[in-house]
Amino acid sequence: MVLEVNTMDELKDADSIRAHYGEPSHMAKAKQLARLDQHCRSFIQLSPFLVVATTDADGRMDTSPRGDAPGFVAVLDDKTLVVPDRVGNRRADTMLNVTANAHIALLFLVPGINETLRVNGTARVTVDPAVLAPLTANGKLPAAALVVTAEEVFFHCGKPLIRSDLWNPDRRVERGRFPSLGKILADQIDGGKAEDYDRGIEEQYRTRLY
Fold first, then answer.
1. What is the pLDDT of residues 68-81, one digit of tens each?
2. pLDDT tens profile 137-158
3. Taking the CB of the first residue and of the last residue of the chain, which one, N or C, has fewer CB atoms within 10 A?
4. For the structural domain made of 29-164, what CATH number should be given?
């Protein structure tokens, strides 16, 4: 069954959104900072994973995961972060977007902690060896790095992670319940074989993480 959404019930502007949701609390507004305080910096040092959101010149958005050992994102000062870009699939969606539209949003997660950290600001792409050298992992420099200037920083409450029960090990999905990436790609790309894709993917996971 296809659900038809009644356009009369849409919230189409800021006034209708605010009328529906009401005003945010004083705390919700006051917690937004213009810099990274000691708590933000400590959280980033604990974080092994974040999601990066960027937008191209036409307003099309993209999100991309980034992960490594805790503290892999360098905090240079109370306004500046450096996010390494490890070897990947060469799509470079995030980097291309940043060169067209510098605005960026980061969401940091720490396993076991339900609160998350949101950082909004601007970014630029660097390949400066002096910037990349401290980000070396497994003896290899990142391909490039995002230098992020923080403009809005705040902790997000834990309700989404509590509702999802994300950190509960008993909620982990058994791997066999979902097809391998090779099988998915074989179904999506004409002429491909699942076993060939899976073999190549496993090889990359072993030898091309860095």
1. 999 999 999 999 99
2. 999 999 999 999 999 999 999 9
3. N
4. 2.30.110.10
